[in-house]
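If you are new to this repository, start here. Below is one unmodified record pulled from the training split, so you can see the exact layout before writing a loader.
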Amino acid sequence: MHNIFQILMSQDTEHVKCLIIGSGPAGYTAAIYAARADLKPVMYTGMLAGGQLTQTTEVENYPGYPNGIMGPEMMEDFRKQAERLGTDIRFGYVSSVDFSCLPHKVVVDESKTILADTVIISTGASAKWLGLESEQKYSGFGVSACAVCDGFFFKGQDVAIVGAGDTAAEEATYLAKLCRKVYMIVRRDEFRASKAMVHRVLNTRNIEILYDTETKEIVGDGQSVNGVTVINNKTNEEKTLAVTGFFVAIGHHPNTDIFRGWIHMDETGYIKTIPGSTTTNIEGVFCCGDAQDHIYRQAVTAAGSGCMAAIDAERYLAAKEHVVTA
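And here is the target side for that same chain:
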């Protein structure tokens, strides 16, 4: 404890009740609830303030926006609401953590130390991309990493999806219900997906599977996608598929590396929480949003878990206070 008090004396150290790491729907919702519970939350947004939705275009599946809304605009609404209720929102990234004792020690921007009674992790997850320049050029304008989020915009059109795992298979069958045709680009001569998912794909009449095939280039008119050039690994044959949408389903990477060694995670880095809660294996540390959800990954489910995290943090602090005063 002596070291903690030494840190407290430092000019670059601050003690807070509730620290929220990361923004986006989960972080901002946690901030709204924490502020209303008088936890005086401090949020560090991370390098992408607002999370993945700031890189999307129109959002039509979030309740409360009957005419849809642009992703960046929605995140701005979330931010304003959290700020109005009293959240101290700061731009910065967490460079290291020490969860060995209470309060928890979090270093921001490699310089400022925050001592937090509770920590809410809402760092999200990032889609894995193929690495094509054209992929980023048309991201949000025909290129997407979420079929459930954006498939509706391609209703009745021809699209392509790249991937061979369960997620790709599931998203391909989802798109097949909306789109006229779905080209499924599989790099090898077989799927990585489970037999049940492969069976579902093979029995969907408007999915055409292109085995041993890689994406070479996404073609567009400068504003939107109108094709994708692919190459067969065995024959070296190139062709361009006439599609208006291109979906990348090769996985996501949770933004949780900074917490390795402290927080229990699964083999891919998603943080494990106690079922029915946002509680982690570390006392006073909670996790919400895509950093712990590899199944749904939707804005509305992230927001819901952000609410849970704030309530869990408030109840944790109330219980601690009761023990101290009892």
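Two things worth knowing about this chain: The chain has two domains: 2-126+252-325, 129-248. The chain has a mean pLDDT of 93.
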